[in-house]
Design a protein that fits this description.
The chain has 7 helices and 4 strands. It is mainly alpha-helical. The protein binds a DNA duplex through helix 2, helix 3, strand 2 and helix 4. This is Methylated-DNA-protein-cysteine methyltransferase-like protein.
Length: 110
DNA sequence: AGAGTGACTGCAT
DNA sequence: AATGCAGCCACTC
């Protein structure tokens, strides 16, 4: 009786993001087929805090590699989590973003 | 049932 | 090149 929702789909992809890598909302949206709705992905992430198992939302950043979700995590929690996985973050921005970028539409397409 | 909100992105100026 | 505006879909009140 699973009341599946678009959110569940987003969570599933987010949980597949390997440690030390990050992706963008648009990339996930595109993989889900709703590339025009990148907002929905971020919106789903907001509810990810209530998702089980927990979703590594800290690995999801905006198109610029900016930690837009940091404010929602509270303090520097997001940046701390990323650095703990080997991702370098400076001024709320992911360093070597294109290097650590993980595109589900490509990685999961294999 | 209708209107509002939102952790974004792309195009236009 | 940089800034501003509009679009988009699902969820909640």
């Amino acid at each position: 009786m699973p009341d599946y929702s678009f959110f569940d789909n987003v969570y599933d992809v987010a949980r597949q993001i390997p440690a030390g890598r990050v992706t963008s909302y648009g990339a996930i949206a595109h993989y889900l087929g709703t590339k025009g709705s990148s907002r929905m992905v971020g919106y789903a992430m907001q509810a990810s805090g209530a998702a089980h198992p927990p979703v590594p939302a800290h690995r999801v950043v905006n198109r610029q590699g900016l930690l837009t979700a940091k404010a929602h995590f509270g303090g520097d929690t997001m940046q701390r989590l990323l650095e703990a996985e080997g991702i370098k973050v400076k001024d709320d921005q992911v360093q070597d973003f294109k290097t650590v970028f993980w595109d589900p539409s490509i990685e999961l397409a294999l």
